[in-house]
User: Fold these one by one.
Assistant:
Number 1:
Amino acid sequence: MSDAATARPRLDAAGACARYEAIRPRLPQARFPAAAVELADLGALADEIDVFVLDGFGVLNIGEAPVPDAPERMAALRARGRRLVVLTNSATQPSRETARKYGKLGMRFAAEEIVSSRDAMAAAMARRSDRLNWGVAATAASELDEIGPGCFALGDDPADYARATGFALLSANDWTPARQALLVAALKDRPRPVLVGNPDLVAPRENGLSLEPGFYAHALWDETGAAPEFHGKPYRDAFAMVAARLPAGTDPKRVAMVGDTLHTDILGGAAQGWRTVLVRAHGLLRALDHHALIRETGIVPDFIVETT
């Protein structure tokens, strides 16, 4: 196989933000405050917010390492009686593995405190009246049987793309340009549903940004003209799953979506009617002028904090 077929494209933070803005018409609409209030960390919001809905990458962790002071901050918020929920677009593994990961990083979350875009996609599959054979972009650790029947991992065999009656993009960890080309060719030959279990374009890692399923899904849309079905932030279904787990009568203005990305966390939280908190120092915007990006995009968080 040629280098061109195996080498992944690259996207830096500025490029990722530009790409998010280019696909803005495909994202939900929301209303935003006129200006953001700047604070040091989430502790400053403990009197104003009852429920903190937390993104993972860039808020709780950077790759496989915890964000500095995040374990202590989570413990302090719990001690104040604040409810914590993780809402993540990390979809490669089941939520119980996400809980295990955060436990190892010193942050303990119960299973009912974690909602992932994977969960939202699985729920959408279960609601369908048809029963498709789903070819899934996944890894060996993805436990596809847990998502639902009829799921199998896509690899480099064109026959797998031909036999699938639907496709799902769950993880980009093992995805390659060659596999993307096979998927594009399969859809051009015979249109089929495409579900996306992680709408993120990129995720912050210790050594830079990884490309995520949303990146490949929008490229697929550009090339085939067929719109995938997205599940996870900033789309409504994942936020609705969190809202369904909150006590009846919870005031949405005392719920805050906390994230590092304007076009997923902040946009999606605002569309849900929650308040929003941008964490600046650890995620996508850490090396960029976030004030300039907020002006350019018009996506304004209620609060900006330097760190979790």
Number 2:
Amino acid sequence: MKLTPFHLAVQVRDIAEARRFYGEGLGFAEGRSAEQWVDFDMFGHQFVVHHNPALGLDGQIAQISNAVDDHSVPVPHFGVVLEFPDWEQLAARARALVDNFIIEPYIRFEGQPGEQGTMFFADPSGNALEFKAFRDIEAELFAT
């Protein structure tokens, strides 16, 4: 099956803050926008932030967490599966941008089927992001 771009919309507490984080910080190009929302190109996918004034300027999106590979993984979370060189470049950008990773970039399931590079961090509004990479995406993405 041919993969097609996903569309994901999330709420943020401040549009200007989201523009700085996703646009300037992570390097995602901006598409269409209005006063209350902004489209970003997240590795070819349409990612949209919508202002939610109910969050307030210090608000955060609520999360739970589950244990995966001895780490506490936030739920909900979203992100993109990347080629390893792209993941390594994003990890370098994220290290310069993010003060506190939820899970620092590392290799998960090392030496096992589905071995992957992964990292988790949150945007300023608390939306949890995971970016991962496989050396062979087709063979490893759904490996058991």
Number 3:
Amino acid sequence: MNITPEERKRLKGQGILSNRDEEHFSARIITENGVLNARQMINLGEAADRYGNGNVAFTARMTLEIQGITYENIEKLQDHIQKEGMVTGGTGNKVRPVVACKGTVCVYGLLDTQGLAKAIHHRFYEGYRNVTLPHKFKIAVGGCPNNCVKPDLNDLGIMGQRVPAYENQLCRGCKKCNIEDTCPMGAAKIADGILTIDPKLCNNCGLCIGKCHFKAIPGGMAGCKIYVGGRWGKKTRPGNLLSRVYTPEEALDMVEKAILYYKEQGQPGERFGAMIDRLGIDAVEKALEGDALLQRKTAILEG
């Protein structure tokens, strides 16, 4: 069948991608947060058998692709996966599907990554689906500083934190300090008979919390760091770390302000990181920390 370039472009906008042989397609299926239930998995297996080549491939960003679909079967496949609430998509100069690690259930997780990713998916992937941006905009949610999903290499990355609440008056300066032994960053040291924590070295992993026999670090503030402007691929750019620790609710607003700022200030074809390099991180952070972007939201989206 002769499929025009215009039709292939239209299909790509729906997450239906041409295979190398140009006779078959792969359907990219979105997950809200990297989690599917058993019924959805069964449905995808059925769809792959009926309308594809029987394979389901996982992408690097936690979507799935059913391969080897003929043009005539594209709509049949989309109708089939819709029965379990799934859709194709995830392409274009838009907010892309969110990536999240398993921090919700991970022993190291400091953040409900899957819950936060689901909130981002509904508010921004779905809510901003009709908003065209200068380029794609990728978001990752990581549960801790182990950095498994590389939040700092996404246009906006969120990383779980647990800032230790150190009560130095309870420190007894033990010769063998559990906190010093536990800290993977070498940030905690006994000096002059008392524990000190270097804030420049501490990555707020939370491993020290509860380790002191005398309860010098009984708890910590839960929150998240935010990186902006990261990217990987042919050109790699580490994201800029914003200056403070945010609550998950604040992080959601920061995502929205970053998207609005990118929509307003970005040039066609320019990635978010390149825009930051052009405008300067100080100016970008100042804009993101203020409320003006949300106040101008309607004008920005209509512009």
Number 4:
Amino acid sequence: MAIKNKQVLLANRPHGWVQESDFSIVETDVPALKDGEVLVKNLYLSLDPYMRGRMNEGKSYAASTNLNEVMVGGTVGVVVESKNPDFQVDDMVLGYFGWQTYGISDSKGLGKINVTEQIPASAYLGVLGMPGLTAWVGLISIGQPKAGETVVVSAASGAVGSVVGQLAKAHGCYVVGIAGGKTKCDYVVNELGFDACVDYKAGHLVEDLTAATPNGIDVYFENVGGEILEAVLDRLNAHARIPLCGLVSQYNETNPHPVRNFGAFLINRVKLQGFIVGEHADLFPQAFQELGQLVASGKLKYRETVAEGLDNAPKAFIGMLKGENLGKQLVKLA
């Protein structure tokens, strides 16, 4: 009897905020394997802000998801059938099968992972996966922080921002996070070890950011955009660096927030560089080595927010875009 595969498809292209009705959930039969292929049962699905852009039609750094196709996304899973000599049944693997319970691969883009007591499978979608690599590449390669400098990161309690701040501390910097709400700010300071955290929801962002950065800002790791970017621009030091990772506050806006103080880039000779982590694969071995050592030693801490079951993926995705998660947002599939 054929194995049933549950899949979440893109049903509509959202205008403004994503709705659960923009997705449809279907079941299909898993086809028989061809020579060279492996069948993977997905255990965890990663939910990430970039997926919102893939729901749109139009020019971007990656192709849009077509209507009635499976939503894109990173996964970790276990090989349950193999016709490929490089993979055996029960191998744990990192893949990009998207929002579905099973995936078939010809092995391209599929990598084995080493799951241990210190490093669970889910970590390969977060702190040791794309978010962790994004944090390392953006901060270390583009931000180039120096000991004693002030580093600020927005979405500081999220999967990327939390790693950015801890890496900056490990490199001797004074680190300030920006996050939404007292709970997240307390987590960032008390558990992750940031020097300060600004609650942008408290109603006095500019004043609080000024107080938290008495020596200005040398590196700003940008995940959010909008009013937070505006506030940061007024605090930048000469020759500051901004690794531009994301603009999550603007992804669902029909009228994006204009940046009023754009001239700060010229006045302070700021380096602003947008980046896509997949274009920096040459740095992955170095990044993974440092991240892996820090995680295994307990020096790099992380949290996961886990939704249960593929049916809850749309709701969890919308919640993540609204900032309801703490740390990495995952869906446990099996």
